[in-house]
Amino acid sequence: MSPVDILKALPSLSVLVVGDVCLDRWCRYDPTLAEPSRETGIPRIAVISREMTPGAAGTVASNLKALGVGRVAILGVRGDDGNGYELMQALASRDIDSSAILMAPELPTFTYTKLINDTDSVEDRPRVDFVFTGDIPTAVESAVVERLLALAPSFDVIIVSDQAETESGGLVTARVREALTSIAAAQPSKIIWVDSRRRGAFYRNVLVKLNEQEAEESCLAFFGELDYQALRQRIGHSTLIVTKGPKGAVIVEEGSTRTVETRPVEHPVDICGAGDSFNAGASVALALTGDAAPAVEFGNLVASITIMKPGTGTASPDEVLAAAAALRK
User: Fold this and answer.
1) Is the CB of residue 102 less than 8 Å from the CB of residue 79?
2) Is 149 exposed, middle or buried (0-12, 13-18, 19+ CB in 10 A)?
């Protein structure tokens, strides 16, 4: 299938994004207004405007909707706080179904606050993040598993966004991973696409996508050497995908390893969210084509567009078609 064919078929697909959903809060500040506090003498950061966008799993969902996927829903957790309500508004404004998001008053809404200098549009101050480093409460975990098992049959694709880098992990706990394994066993034709920063090797019988660093860390931890085939066998799925940025991606299948090259993008504006946009494009393309190579090509095409936009941008069908045409020249 060509990019044209893939885009035409996307409105017929339904995708459930599971995992760590957060609020990205983009705050522009005016450095000329950094007068010191009368009480402490510490200069203030004077925020003059802000924009709220869905982050992490929300970035994946935003990319899916921008590409034209017919139904996109998120299964995640938010707090009973202002950030949580702003997250729900940001999802609603993008026509993303947030009805499966659980509200857990005991948890803060996972939030990134990014401070951008209004004079040059550069993010030049430390991020202010609202994080939770403990274990997900058992009742919340059980509710997530119950909803996942109930929702899975009604979606064509499940994308897992396992973004938390704490030792205990985030929403995608061992029980959630076990539920995904059981879904894969019951519905072997369903695409379950996993992106995990630290726990890729702990999934079973689902397609895992890792970047080069994540794959290397997993291989060294379990085998003491770089062995993608051994990692694929440990996970137990027919396919493992390792992305390598401007060098393309490696598709590891039983008995073979092939590289799908991509054309490097000169002077990218912002690579934040590139993996999420790749996941969105490649997973749905795989569901439609049944072949990892054109899926990776489509994912790279989407990511090549989003990295030329500030923040966690998305790619429209027209932009994808224009990028595809440029590659043919």
Assistant:
1) no
2) middle
Ranges of beta strands (E only) in 217-315 are: 239-243, 249-253, 256-260
Can you give the pLDDT of all 329 residues of the chain as single tens digits? Answer: 999 999 999 999 999 999 999 999 999 999 999 999 889 999 999 999 999 999 999 999 999 999 999 999 999 999 999 999 999 999 999 999 999 999 999 999 999 999 999 999 999 999 999 988 888 999 999 999 999 999 999 999 999 999 887 776 789 999 999 999 999 999 999 999 999 999 999 999 999 999 999 999 999 999 999 999 999 999 999 999 999 988 999 999 998 999 999 888 888 888 878 899 999 999 999 999 999 999 999 999 999 999 998 878 899 999 999 999 988 87
Helix pair angle (274-289, 57-67), 10° resolution: 50
Tokens of 176: 């959630």
Which residue do the tokens 């989407």 mark?
302
Cβ partners under 8 Å of residue 188, min gap 6? none
pTM strictly above 0.70: yes
- Among 153, 150, 132, 26, which Cα is nearest to 77's? 132
Residue 153 CA to residue 91 CA, distance in Å, equals 23
Q: Report yes or no: 58 and 90 within 8 Å, Cβ to Cβ.
A: yes
CA distance linking residue 173 with residue 145, whole number of Å: 10
Distance CA 234, CA 251 (A): 16
Element (H, E) at 75: strand 71-75
Alpha carbons within 13 A on the beta-carbon side of 298: 30
